[in-house]
Design brief:
The chain is of the alpha+beta class. The chain is built from 17 helices and 26 strands. The protein is about 30% helix and about 20% strand. The protein binds flavin-adenine dinucleotide (FAD). Flavin-adenine dinucleotide binds near residues 335 and 341.
Length: about 575
Amino acid sequence: MERESLEMDVVFVGAGPANLSGALHLARLVKEYNEAVAAGRREGKSLGEIEIGVIEKGASVGAHILSGAVMDPRALKELIPDFVEQGVPLEAPVKEDYFLYLTKTRAIRSPITPPPLKNHGYYIVSLNKLTAWLGEQCEAAGVNIFPEFPGAEMLYDERDCVVGVRTGDKGIDKEGKPKANFEPGVDLLAKVTVLGEGPRGSLTKQLSERLNLNEGREPQVYSIGVKELWELPDDRYPAGRVTHTLGFPSDAQTYGGGWIYGLPNRILNLGYVTGLDYRDPLLDPHAEFQRFKQHPFVAHLLEGGKLLRYGAKTIAAGGYHAMPQLYADGVLLVGDCASFLNPQRIKGIHTAIKSGMLAAEAIFEALVAGDYSERQLQRYEELVKASWVMPELRKVRNFHASFRHGRWLGLANAGLQFITGGRSWGLFDRTSTEPGHVAMRKLADYGYKGDALEQRYNGLRFDGKLTFNKLTDVYHAAVGHDEDQPAHLHVLDTNICSTRCAEEYGNPCQRFCPAAVYEMVEDSAGGRRRLQINFSNCVHCKTCDIMDPYQIINWVTPEGGGGPDYKNM
Ligand SMILES: Cc1cc2nc3c(=O)[nH]c(=O)nc-3n(C[C@H](O)[C@H](O)[C@H](O)COP(=O)(O)OP(=O)(O)OC[C@H]3O[C@@H](n4cnc5c(N)ncnc54)[C@H](O)[C@@H]3O)c2cc1C
């Protein structure tokens, strides 16, 4: 097959806050340098025109971005000091912070807001609006942005140096044959490729395995956030109010918590985070969120309101201990796919932006030196270590590990670490020695007997007013994939689904997927039930790739432009 090759200088994979900040910062550094050289203020040779590209699998910049989000503006201020005047889309400055403990029926307000959850000076943002805005700034600075271009494969030379990325083919039918509109993917060749794919990046996974970038690090651990936007009938919840909750509906062994943020125009943004290292094989993060809304405190807030939007996405919560090697020949890793999120504050926007900026500074030095080797690019890790990011992440390095022993020990230990600067004297050191899916127990080991599947959420009804089933919610994520293409969820051995997995775990993919992608259906030929993959529902959260107990689900990028179309999320 003939493929087009396009030579660029730097290619950023994924138009998230990390990469867009990196691309923008790099474009400016190059411009300033060239101007300084031309004016004789700086010695050296002009870099000339540096081609910077950003590829994004979504139909537009921001379409696949979902976050909370309360943003710490520290890094944005460094990138764009007058960001408010420049018109960065900010929903509201945080005016009030509440921290509630939810029992089944009561909401108990903590007399003090724990310091990590204090958000004064921060902003509630819609991250997909903010990234769309950053994309515009990049284009104005001369960066080429290519939406609908998924990075499908890394390109290496004979010495395993990364030399670019191959984008996905378009127009392949579900049998794998080219259709009339077939267009082969393009080989984007670059001196430096930057992966900013967000949590559980599909290329990051390939690259890390091939180059052993996780050697000597802890496995990454994840959570999933399930979120809805509601329109309220009145001003009962003011813009700028931030509430975080702990307790109901999570049991004390499961890491979880809720958020409720007030946006302008009577819009309520709420969601629920569940740790993807839960034990109960029948747990369903989407159902947990529906139960959260049934809590009297939340249900009361939503009374008379209307569901506007839905979405779900994973969060890489391993932090400091799970950070991979950030560089190799011709490649750098930024943002969530490089474990930059602060797990204690569940804030990763500021660290993603900062990591992108530091990557840009390292690439700029590499361009000036004309050297893109690992030796030169390790400068990025040096810059990260010398920045404010590392002390911030180091202080909370054992946060997630604390919760492996349940909520109460976790909280006690998190409080202790707050005083000790992250130390926990070996008690709860490191995130986990095992990835999260290992925590899931088999049905029998968890104590389920008989028709277990009915037991966990007995009593949860989807009334279409307060609670919604997955298909209704997926409709509100505006998900679309061309159905005549191969499924982008590769299940390596579907036999396991019908046999071992059905017996041992009751096919948990049907529950951990928040978009009803996985369904066990009666086989027309009779016999055991078989797995049906409704890939067109997929919201690209990557939970299946993370949480499958046999690790046989491989999430790869579908045809460009497919997936959710998030707005205001
Ligand atoms: C539910 C939830 C709540 C959160 N709340 C907060 C909060 O309140 N405050 C806060 O600071 N942080 C919060 N975060 C974390 C924050 O959103 C992330 O840390 C941040 O978005 C990371 O930025 P990123 O650029 O690394 O990745 P992302 O924002 O994930 O962006 C990655 C982009 O890359 C694209 N992409 C991925 N793979 C490919 C590929 N192969 N080819 C092409 N494109 C690709 C994706 O479509 C996406 O557009 C939250 C996250 C979630 C999920």
